[in-house]
Write a structure and sequence with these properties.
About 75% of the residues lie in helices and about 0% in strands. By secondary structure, the chain is mainly α. Helix 5 packs across helix 11 and helix 8 (about 125-140) runs parallel beside helix 14. The longest helix is centred in the last third of the chain and has 30 residues, at about 265-290. It starts with 6 loop residues before the first helix and ends in an 11-residue tail after the last helix. It comes from Nitrincola lacisaponensis.
Length: about 300
């Protein structure tokens, strides 16, 4: 069924599914009482085992060739993913989650600029407008959650949008190459610092249950789907879809603690949904118009 869809729509759906699987991440990070190195060690080890098995099953003896086809992304993407993971966990422990998510939501803007300057990935005006509106919506949604925060936490969080943008943009620049085969290397890049920082320890069973659920189910599915997105859409558009994590993750936290979102939060969340839905609808209308006119490649509009 996916093969019949327009390329960009396929990319949006795959990435969106990954974001849904990633949405419990912030809640579980906040809901566990485990040192950061220990949390990252188990998080990365479990995720690495699953994605390694998946890559081996998919490619079998062709796996080394699939890895070599990734070119310069072989070392850039794993390091960027590992940096994002470490920064996300550490920043959430050091400052308010609202601060981290607002800073994280600058990733699509940064990805758009990186893609334009280094990879000649030109975005439509519509995409730039959607990025800015979604960032505005995220800031509105989290305005009540933002706090002054620990300066070190804010400084660490500032790294997050750059590492996210670098990964999605470099993966997208590989022109349809499957970079999910690099996820095991990302796991290794997360595990090594965790071991050096004393992360090899067994958490309590209550925390371990949450980590097992995150590391064996949610994270492997999320990373695999999100890393598949750049095969079909630009890095900026993948990062744009990650703003949905702000909406879904924050709603999960509110539900878990039993809080009622503020009016501004409802408006911001509505703006994100309306903007992304409206952009997708415009794309579908544009595709249908081109198809009626018999325009070649109407099913695959430019980014």
């Amino acid at each position: 069924m996916l093969n019949r869809l327009p390329t960009r729509l396929k990319g949006y759906l795959i990435t969106g599914a990954g974001v849904v699987m990633l949405s419990p991440d912030a809640l579980i990070v906040k809901d566990t009482d485990v040192d950061v190195p220990v949390f990252v060690f188990w998080r990365a080890l479990l995720m690495c085992l699953v994605v390694t098995l998946l890559a081996s099953w998919r490619y079998k003896r062709e796996l080394p060739d699939a890895i070599r086809r990734c070119g310069s992304a072989i070392w850039i993407c794993p390091l960027a993913i590992a940096t994002s993971s470490w920064v996300f966990v550490a920043a959430n422990r050091l400052t308010a989650a609202g601060n981290v998510l607002v800073i994280q939501n600058m990733a699509p803007l940064i990805a758009g600029i990186i893609g334009l300057l280094f990879f000649q990935q030109k975005l439509r005006l519509q995409t730039w407008v959607v990025i800015l509106l979604c960032i505005a919506g995220a800031v509105m949604m989290l305005s009540g959650e933002m706090q002054a925060g620990n300066p070190m936490g804010l400084l660490i969080a500032a790294i997050l949008p750059f590492s996210m943008a670098i990964n999605t943009t470099v993966a997208s620049a590989q022109k349809g190459i499957d970079t999910t085969v690099l996820l095991p290397f990302a796991g290794i890049a997360m595990i090594i610092p965790a071991i050096l920082l004393g992360g090899v320890a067994l958490p309590g069973w209550e925390d371990m249950k949450r980590i097992l659920l995150l590391g064996l189910v949610f994270l492997p599915a999320a990373y695999y789907l999100i890393q598949s997105g750049p095969r079909y859409i630009t890095g900026a558009e993948v990062s744009l879809m990650l703003i949905l994590e702000t909406l879904l993750g924050t709603l999960l936290v509110w539900w878990w603690v039993g809080e009622l979102p503020t009016t501004m939060a409802f408006i911001g969340g509505g703006l994100i949904l309306l903007t992304l839905s409206g952009s997708a609808l415009l794309d579908l209308i544009r595709i249908n118009i081109k198809a009626r006119r018999g325009v070649p490649g109407a099913r695959i509009p430019p980014p």
